[in-house]
Write a structure and sequence with these properties.
2 domains, 21 strands, about 20% helix, about 40% strand, Pol/histidinol_Pase-like, Polymerase/histidinol phosphatase N-terminal domain-containing protein
Length: about 325
């Protein structure tokens, strides 16, 4: 996905030129606390018409059981070869003293225990260049974590929801606080699912990517071309000037927001543009449409360093975009 477009040429056809891949982050298999083997999990998600599934089994279950880790990697690789149009990811859930729980995906190996030194994690990631990291289950304590430029290089995104089919929590306030502190992170929907029901609900993450290969999806996760959605049919595009969602924009005296949203199944009721401290800088209410292209010109406040789009749909469904940042 290109990071920039020409606003002059931006039309409704842009949705048809983008590809949207819907799937689950933060699943678990029977190799740790979940139900079903990894292949069972991937197959369930595939049959529910998801485009990808990310499993992150608790690394503590691999203690003296490295064969379980190898089995998970093997099943992931096997399923990727078996099914076209679906991408399976495997990784592990670990712990850190500085950012809490972490899902580390697509790595060659794993670690056990609580990492106390960020430098250790950074060195470990040098040996796992194809891996990416998601902050999972964010708690209030994460709001105290100051921005770390080098650490941010290896952290791609944070869960703005946390929970499974029995207990689903929206945690965007922690995401906003991290952004206030200077972190450059995308947002994802963290299902934290232990049951074999992937895709039974519409609580998903969408990755915007030209192709659905593992390499392309990883690249666009790292580029923050993601949004959290509670509708499997919601398409969301967000630009400021010529910068696409996830990008960093040089300061400008005037910002031109272009928001394109479409959902064939649920009406769009309200759109909010949110900035620092969770302040709504602009909103559009009582929309009642299933497709909208909205353009808004905004003079930025000196305190505004990031913007996200929040979408309210019928039946209390919420979507949240990854940010665009002001340099």
């Amino acid at each position: 996905m290109p990071s920039k477009v020409s606003n002059k040429n931006l039309t409704d056809s842009i949705i048809s030129n983008c590809k949207f891949f819907y799937g689950g982050f933060h699943g678990h298999s029977s190799l740790s606390i979940g139900e079903g083997s990894p292949i069972d999990c991937y197959n369930y998600a595939y049959r529910n018409n998801l485009d990808f599934l990310i499993l992150a089994d608790h690394s503590s279950f691999f203690l003296n059981r490295e064969h379980k880790w190898n089995f998970g990697l093997e099943q992931c690789h096997k399923f990727n070869k078996k099914r076209e149009g679906f991408t399976s990811f495997y990784g592990f859930e670990g712990k850190s003293e500085f950012l809490g729980d972490l899902n580390i995906i697509n790595s060659k190996n794993y670690f056990i225990g609580n990492v106390s030194n960020p430098l250790v994690l950074m060195i470990w990631m040098l040996n796992n260049p194809n891996a990416f990291i998601i902050i999972s289950n964010p708690l209030k304590t994460i709001c105290l974590r100051e921005y770390d430029f080098n650490l941010n290089k290896i952290i791609s995104c944070v869960e703005v929801t946390s929970g499974n089919s029995e207990r689903y929590l929206r945690r965007e306030k922690y995401f906003f606080k991290l952004l206030d502190n200077g972190w450059k992170l995308g947002c994802v929907n963290g299902i934290n699912e232990t049951k074999l029901n992937f895709g039974d609900t519409e609580n998903l993450t969408c990755i915007i990517s030209p192709k659905g290969s593992k390499e392309n999806l990883i690249q666009n996760i790292r580029s923050r071309h993601t949004y959290s959605t509670e509708s499997k049919t919601l398409k969301l595009l967000f630009f400021i000037n010529n910068t696409f969602m996830g990008g960093i924009l040089n300061n400008s005296e005037e910002l031109r927001f272009t928001i394109v949203i479409e959902d064939k199944n649920y009406a769009i009721n309200k759109i909010e543009i949110i900035s620092n401290e969770g302040v709504v800088v602009h909103q559009i209410q009582n929309i009642g449409l299933k497709k909208i292209k909205y353009i808004y010109n905004h003079i930025p406040n000196v305190k505004e360093t990031w913007y996200v789009i929040k979408v309210y749909e019928e039946t209390n469904k919420i979507a949240l975009s990854s940010p665009i940042f002001l340099k």
